[in-house]
Amino acid sequence: MPARARDLNPDLSARHLFGAELRMLREQRGYTLESLASSLKRSKSAISRYETAESMIPPDLPGALDVLLEANGLFTKLYRLARKEIHPDQFRRRMELEDRAVHFGEYTGQIVSGLVQTPAYAEAQFRAADPCAEDSRIADLVTARMTRQLRWAPHGPGRLALLLDEAVIRRQVGSRAVMREQLSILCELALTPRTTIQVLPFSHGVHALMGGTLTLLVLEDGTRVAYEESISTGTLVEDNEGVLMRQWHYDLLRASALSPEQSRGMMREAMRSFE
Questions:
Q1: Alpha carbon distance 59, 76 (integer Å)
Q2: Which of 41, 118, 156, 251 is the least buried, fewest Cβ under 10 Å from its Cβ?
Q3: Membrane-crossing residues (predicted)?
Q4: Which of 114, 107, 103 minimizes the C-alpha distance to 224?
């Protein structure tokens, strides 16, 4: 006798609604879990977890479901809501603004920006933050982080300018192989038509942004916002005076940083230290 399907509460969250709609349309179109998984080239257990809202939805699944189940864009729309639910409340407003941004500038002092992290680097960071977390939880966090990168892909709509403290490329996160892979990606992105990465060397000394992360967003209508982040909290700054002050601090650091080509050279040297 087959196991009884787990009950869903579509009113609980967008992920539950996504799962409920997936199960309903799957059954209406005559697919079993096995046949749908086969058509999507995924495992039956993975499809089951998406239906029951137990796992974060991967970014390439909604579009495939819309086509296969003739859903007229339903799953893509639901995904835009569901993808935010893995993040704490204080970050959701920032994510909404990030989705509307056409230019993104960020200073990070300790870790690589989540917008350009490799999956392995992100996993190492999440495991360090919560060593007791279950593998499924870590996998959800990594998937959620990877979805944020879609807007800044080579053919995406946004432009990305990152400023990294030298500590970011020197501090080992994960294994040496993880660091080499991550630094290789940073070297590729150092200077492209849509991305720049600059390193602020230790020799610069003390500065106004030490101890945190600063994100600067320019939205499609020209609105500018800033977001400051510490270990566990984030502050959104939307008043013009506050944003301009933070933009000034960021611009001063960029002026003192290595050029993108010089930064690429330093990152390649750092890669060799992880061989």
A1: 9
A2: 41
A3: none
A4: 103
Distance of CA 127 to the CA centre of its chain: 16
Residue 219 has pLDDT above 70, yes or no: yes
pLDDT band at 58 (very low <50, low <70, confident <90, very high): confident
Q: Is 63 exposed, middle or buried (0-12, 13-18, 19+ CB in 10 A)?
A: middle
Tokens standing for residue 164: 């990294």
Q: Which domains are assigned to the chain?
A: 14-82 (1.10.260.40), 91-273 (3.30.870)
pTM of the complete model: 0.71
Q: Cβ(78)–Cβ(17) under 8 Å? A: yes
Task: Find the range with the poorest average confidence among 18-32, 81-95, 146-160, 198-212.
Answer: 81-95
pLDDT tens, residue by residue, 197-211: 999 999 999 998 987
Residues 6+ apart with CB under 8 A from 25: 65, 69, 71, 74
Gap between the Cα atoms of 33 and 271, Å rounded: 44
Is the pLDDT at 85 greater than 90? The verdict is no
Exposed / middle / buried, residue 240 (Cβ in 10 Å: 0-12, 13-18, 19+): exposed
